[in-house]
Amino acid sequence: MTGLWLPPEDDPRTALPQERGEKPTVLGYLAHYRLTLRLKCADLTPEQLATRSVPPSSMSLLGLVRHLARVEHHWARRCVEGHEELDRLYRTEEQPDLDFDGVQPTQGCVDEAWASWEREVAHAETVYAAAEPDAVVTFRGEPLEVRDVLVHMVEEYARHLGHADLLRECVDGRTGV
Predict the structure, then answer these.
(1) Spatial separation of the C-alpha atoms in residues 131 and 146, rounded to whole Å
(2) In angstroms, rounded to a whole number, what is the distance separating the alpha carbons of residues 81 and 94?
(3) What would the 3-class secondary structure string for the chain be?
(4) Residue 20 and residue 100: Cα distance in Å, rounded?
(5) What's the rounded mean pLDDT across residues 134-149?
(6) Beta-carbon neighbour count of residue 105 at 10 Å?
(7) Distance (Å, rounded) from C-alpha 139 to C-alpha 145?
(8) Which of 23, 50, 101, 117 could covalently link to 69 via disulfide, CB atoms 3.0 to 4.6 Å apart?
């Protein structure tokens, strides 16, 4: 089975629960994609994680970790929980792309990014587990179903994992899912 990232018996994604229904399905995909991000970044040095793609882009695997922490924070805390007053992670008015532009090839930056991502994922998992997909929240003065947020999260991870595939292949040639 060439091209596999890991032998099936060693792949932690195969142990995810396979429940039926809309919410378990969407949350299952999200859990799968979160684990895939972790796998795509495994066994790399800070320098490799911070390696940028193609100029002028500032995209890197480490930037993706920071970006996805920012996305998790935004949608769970600011949108679903209604805390729009919270500052966005890795973003200022002067530096709206700080998630990517602020990456440094240091262990400290790597540790901080993963801690932020893990904190925001854990919080989001709690928020989404308690929410019903058809619940309506108000965000920026407009009604929004939690279902839309969950589907957007799956879409966000799926899109960026495509980027992660290419970034990882450029760093060390490793391919596969």
Answers:
(1) 7
(2) 26
(3) CCCCCCCHHHCHHHHCCCCCCHHHHHHHHHHHHHHHHHHHCCCCCHHHHCCCCCCCCCCCHHHHHHHHHHHHHHHHHHHHCCCCCCCCCCCCCCCCCHHHHCCCCCHHHHHHHHHHHHHHHHHHHHHHHHCCCCCEEEECCEEEEHHHHHHHHHHHHHHHHHHHHHHHHHHHCCCCC
(4) 36
(5) 96
(6) 15
(7) 10
(8) 117
The pTM of this model reads 0.90
Q: For residue 124, which of 31, 14, 38, 18 has the smallest C-alpha distance?
A: 31
Please give the pLDDT value at position 142.
Answer: 96
Positive or negative, the CA dihedral 119, 177, 51, 92 is negative
What amino acid is encoded at 149 in this protein?
A: V
Taking residues 62-80, report their average pLDDT: 98
Mean pLDDT of 50-76: 96
